[in-house]
Specification:
Layout lengths: L12 H16 L4 H8 L3 H13 L3 E10 L2 E8 L5 E7 L3 E8 L4 E8 L7 H21 L4 E8 L2 E3 L2 E4 L10 H9 L3 E5 H12 L3 E2 L2 E2 L3 E6 L3 E7 L2 E2 L30 H5 L1 H8 L4 H9 L3 H25 L3 E6 H21 L7 E3 L6 H16 L1 H7 L2
Parallel strand pairs: 3-6, 6-9, 12-15, 15-16
Antiparallel strand pairs: 1-2, 3-4, 4-5, 7-8, 10-11, 12-13, 13-14
Length: about 400
């Protein structure tokens, strides 16, 4: 999350300082008012007034005495678990998902609907997503959690609330944010699923680099489609037209089969989930995992081939971006025990690097994008609590 480190001295001071105080509590809580004042540079009286507003809004709770400063017991301030929550939604090729995350990042609801969306009408998929969203909102309401908004992860290019391109769903332009917002009454934003998966991994994946959270890496979303989320300095890199990270359409076999994007030999066609299942002659990922565990030759060869093609694509990524790590997510995380060795060998062959960055395995798997979507909403509140307060009934 973005946390301000200095008090504001200009118009909008209250809004900026609300964010400053809430950000400090989010970063270091439980913490006393005196320490918030010392760390932010605000006066103790200013902090007390801002904290009172945040407590009244339900964003901060206090408990104590939890610390002692100069011999005086002090109450501790923390984010309030019941203050507000974010709704994360995901449309993917073969499932819909929803997660509700509270202000402390704790998941409070999680549901996945397995359904092949490739040959369905857009309106049908959107109607199903709205139903998933309403059920999730009902669970939040039953827990006394007001939703601050929703974020939808989509398997394609999304700009300003509109789906521009979805190669695997073949959708036309869809004003998806407006459609979901009108049906649910929530403020809705839209983002590419690979970008959100990368954010979910950074916030919830638990990986560290040089003693701190991993903040420079590439997350590879391995589903039926393959996406790459690029994180630089703790922020997603989207490119000039929000199209960065389309790893699935990097060409790894120029004479390979035609891809849905119109190209030939794209990584998605050579190492996508559907291709691996087909070559392994199994129907589902569960079947594939069991076959690999049993030492089935066709399954192991299919996964190894996918790992080699993935390594070809990642070699170029490493050469171009020099990330601290690569994180394998989705199906690639599930298949890592049989895929990672081939991927590492392919990277080494195509880069000549003697010490390439580590190949890490996501603990979130296919949940990374929807967790990142819910976390995005929560962080909007922490970064700008004044805007959230202005929207409250």
């Amino acid at each position: 999350m973005t946390v301000r480190s200095e008090p504001a001295q200009h118009a909008g001071m209250r809004a900026s300082n609300l964010a400053l105080v809430l950000g400090e509590v989010a970063r270091t809580g439980p913490v006393s008012r005196a320490r918030v004042a010392a760390r932010t540079g605000l006066t103790k009286s200013s902090v007390s007034g801002l904290v009172a507003d945040l407590i009244s809004a339900g964003l901060i709770g206090e408990s104590g005495p939890a610390a002692t400063e100069r011999g005086r017991p002090a109450t501790a301030l923390s984010l309030a678990p019941g203050g507000t929550a974010g709704l994360g939604l995901e449309i993917n090729v073969d499932y819909l998902a929803a997660v509700v995350t509270d202000l402390t990042d704790a998941p409070r609801y999680h549901h996945v609907v397995r359904r092949d969306n490739r040959d369905r009408e857009v309106d049908e998929v959107v109607a199903d997503l709205v139903e998933v969203a309403r059920t999730a909102a009902g669970s939040a309401a039953a827990q006394g959690l007001p939703l601050a908004g929703a974020c939808v992860a989509v398997p394609g290019l999304a700009v300003d609330g509109t789906v521009i391109r979805t190669p695997n769903l073949r959708w036309p332009r869809v004003d998806l944010a407006d459609a979901v917002g009108e049906a649910t009454g929530l403020d809705v934003e839209l983002e590419n699923e690979a970008n959100l998966a990368a954010l979910g991994e950074m916030w919830f994946g638990g990986h560290e680099h040089e003693g701190g959270p991993l903040r420079d890496f590439v997350h590879v979303s391995g589903e039926i489609g393959i996406g790459g989320g690029i994180v630089v300095g703790g922020e997603v890199f989207r490119g000039a037209h929000a199209g960065a990270g389309e790893l699935g359409h990097v060409v790894v076999a120029p004479d390979g089969p035609r891809c849905a994007c119109g190209g030939h030999g794209c990584l998605e066609r050579m190492a996508g989930q559907q291709e691996i299942l087909s070559r392994a002659q199994v129907a589902t990922m569960a079947d594939l995992t069991r076959a690999c565990e049993a030492g089935d030759r066709a399954a192991l060869d299919a996964v190894t081939d996918a790992g080699r093609h993935l390594g070809v694509a990642l070699a170029s990524v490493l050469t171009l971006l020099d990330p601290a790590a690569i994180v394998l997510g989705g199906a690639f995380a599930t298949l890592a025990p049989w895929l990672a060795t081939a991927t590492e060998a392919s990277i080494a062959r195509h880069t000549g690097a003697t010490a390439p960055p580590p190949l890490l395995v996501s603990g979130l798997g296919s949940d990374a994008a929807v967790r990142g979507a819910a976390g995005t909403v929560v962080r909007r509140v922490i970064d700008d609590p004044a805007a959230y307060l202005a929207r409250r009934p």
